[in-house]
């Protein structure tokens, strides 16, 4: 068994009286590619944001290599530098070029010198096919290109696990493929990934494990073959039938 | 027509005698407005940044108390200096200090007093502008910065403040232009600005209206040049509207323009249904 990176125990999150996550238990191992699927409002994105501490969970614990990051005294910024995140709305820094976007975190957070950071950033920008655009600003490139830069920016920090929050939902249909391709290659290279997605083909073909969430709980999880081929719960069957059409 | 000719003559008379004092007045006005605006912006940025330090219920009570106290102090500062006329602030500071300290404390020069008053006044306006500028930056920018492990300070200095500065450039320009005009009240403490030159000129020549015309034209030229320069600076900050490609992008699939390199390989992302329905057409 490979090393366990994250373990989530009894995680709950409420916004006011609205319970978005209820008692989630969940583990991520080195090299896992996990797709989280489910209807809108089922808590998928909130779970991902809780894992990255962008939301503070109401209760429960998140163990990163056995250390609870929700305990007072842990440094959330330091923890986040090991857990990359790619957003639905890209969130590239608008005041920087493509290259600066991928360099600034390495320099300011990891303390790398500018030249090393630049070379490292170029390596990933080449992998996502954005090397030609290093001088462009985010407003000058398309959504698919922005998302590829966002992936390179996250990867340049050498994270242990990369979280994707609906990375293709804000894209025009013809740009979805270029982003999914990059993610596919990343998964193939052994990167540990947690992907909230509505792309069932990606979940089926690329992930090692699929988690179906509904109503703030993990309803069912298993290998793609198990979950797509032989779903056990009625909710899962209903949800999947809507995608088969 | 005769009146206009008369005005021209009077202005010429004034100009031949007082052009030196008009020019040095203009220079002093611009220098005071510029320094006052710059220091005011600095004050505004400090206040705006202190005002937007986030705190949550889970933070230490001392931290929460200090942050709340800072917000209250800034609020009082803004309300007092935004809510009173600059001319009175100048009088209060320039004559109030020696009054209360029995002449032990006083401004050694009107320049220092004028700069302090204009800066504090501008700072009060800028504090709110900067707060607005920071709030108006997309929260996604903060999340993006936090997600790569930046602290609040790093997020602010690298990501938020540069964008906030761009957002509030029009406000800074506004304040500078207001300062060019409003420093005219500084004659009250004897500051030798452009308006003081007018008072000196008419005191000796009694040519009130011609001198006022010179002032009008002078102030308008200064503010017009200032607006022009500010627009130019804004453009400059936006950076080039084009960029150079270092080579071609292999991954962009522009629909229908060319075959994607992954076509037919296991990396082909299109769903099977779509490929099948499209087969007949090829």
Give the fraction of residues assigned to helices of chain A: 25-40%
Largest sheet composition of chain A = 6 strands, mixed
| Strand content bin of chain B | under 5%
**What's the number of extended β-strand segments of chain B?**
0
| Average residue-wise pLDDT of chain A | 92
Per DSSP, the total helix count of chain B is 9
Query: Helix share of residues of chain B?
Result: over 70%
Mean pLDDT of chain B: 86
Major beta sheet, strand line-up of chain A: 6-7-8-3-9-10
How is the biggest beta sheet of chain B arranged?
none
How would you characterize this protein structure?
The complex is a heterodimer of chains A (245) and B (282). By secondary structure, chain A is of the alpha/beta class. Helices cover 38% and strands 26% of the residues of chain A. Chain A is built from 9 helices and 10 strands. Chain A has helices spanning 44-51, 76-80, 98-108, 114-127, 143-156, 173-188, 200-206, 224-229, 234-244; strands spanning 4-15, 18-29, 33-38, 59-64, 67-68, 83-86, 161-165, 192-196, 209-214, 217-222. In chain A, the strands form 2 sheets. A 6-stranded mixed β-sheet of chain A has the order 6-7-8-3-9-10, sandwiched between helices. In chain A, strand 9 and strand 10 (217-222) form a beta hairpin. In chain A, helix 3 packs parallel to helix 5 (143-156) and helix 4 (114-127) crosses helix 5 (143-156). In chain A, 50% of the residues are buried. Chain B is mainly alpha-helical and 282 residues long. Chain B has a single domain (2-281), classed as MetI-like fold. Chain B is built from 9 helices and no strands. The longest helix of chain B has 50 residues, at 2-51. Mean pLDDT of chain B is 86; it is low at 253-258 and 273-282. Chains A and B meet through helix 2, helix 3, helix 5 and helix 6 of A and helix 5 and helix 6 of B.
């Amino acid at each position: 068994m490979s090393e366990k990176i994250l373990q989530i125990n009894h995680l709950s999150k409420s916004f006011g009286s609205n319970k978005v996550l209820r008692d989630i238990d969940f583990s991520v191992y080195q090299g896992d590619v996990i797709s989280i699927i489910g209807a809108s409002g089922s808590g998928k994105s909130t779970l991902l944001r809780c894992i990255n501490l962008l939301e503070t969970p109401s209760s429960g614990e998140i163990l990163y290599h056995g250390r609870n990051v929700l305990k007072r005294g842990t440094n959330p910024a330091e923890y986040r530098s090991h857990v990359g995140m790619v957003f639905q709305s890209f969130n590239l820094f608008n005041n920087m070029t493509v290259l600066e976007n991928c360099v600034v975190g390495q320099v300011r957070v990891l303390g790398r010198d500018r030249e090393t950071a630049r070379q490292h950033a170029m390596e990933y920008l080449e992998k996502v096919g954005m090397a030609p655009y290093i001088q462009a600003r985010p407003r000058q490139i398309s959504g698919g290109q922005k998302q590829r830069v966002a992936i390179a920016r996250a990867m340049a920090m050498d994270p242990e696990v990369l979280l994707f929050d609906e990375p293709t939902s804000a894209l025009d249909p013809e740009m979805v493929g270029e982003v999914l391709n990059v993610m596919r290659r990343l998964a193939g290279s052994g990167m540990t990934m947690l992907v909230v997605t509505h792309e069932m083909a990606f979940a089926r073909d690329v992930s090692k494990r699929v988690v179906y969430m509904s109503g703030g709980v993990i309803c069912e999880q298993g290998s793609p073959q198990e979950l797509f081929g032989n779903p056990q719960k009625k909710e899962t069957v209903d949800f999947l039938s809507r995608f088969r059409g | 027509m005769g009146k206009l000719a008369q005005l021209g003559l009077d202005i010429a008379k004034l100009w031949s005698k007082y052009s030196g004092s008009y020019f040095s007045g203009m220079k002093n006005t611009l220098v005071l407005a510029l320094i006052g605006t710059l220091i005011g912006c600095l004050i505004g940025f400090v206040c705006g940044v202190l005002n937007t330090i986030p705190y949550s219920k889970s933070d230490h009570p001392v931290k929460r108390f200090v942050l709340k106290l800072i917000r209250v102090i800034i609020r009082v500062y803004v309300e007092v200096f935004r809510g009173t006329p600059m001319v009175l602030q100048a009088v209060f500071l320039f004559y109030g200090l020696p009054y209360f300290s029995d002449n032990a404390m006083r401004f050694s020069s009107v320049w220092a007093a004028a700069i302090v008053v204009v800066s504090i006044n501008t700072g009060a306006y800028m504090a709110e502008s900067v707060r607005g500028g920071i709030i108006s930056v997309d929260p996604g920018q903060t999340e993006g910065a936090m997600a790569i492990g930046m602290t609040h300070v790093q997020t602010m200095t690298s990501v938020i403040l540069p964008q906030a500065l761009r957002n509030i450039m029009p406000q800074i320009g506004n304040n500078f232009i207001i300062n060019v005009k409003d420093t005219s009240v500084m004659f009250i403490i004897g500051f030798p600005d452009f308006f003081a030159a007018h008072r000196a000129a008419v005191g000796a020549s009694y040519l009130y209206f011609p001198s006022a015309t010179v002032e009008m034209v002078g102030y308008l030229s200064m503010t017009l040049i200032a607006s022009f320069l500010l627009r130019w600076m804004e453009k400059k900050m936006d950076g080039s509207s084009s960029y150079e490609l270092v080579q071609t992008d292999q991954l962009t699939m522009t629909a229908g323009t060319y075959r994607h390199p992954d076509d037919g390989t296991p990396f082909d992302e299109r769903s099977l249904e779509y490929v099948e329905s499209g087969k007949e057409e090829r």
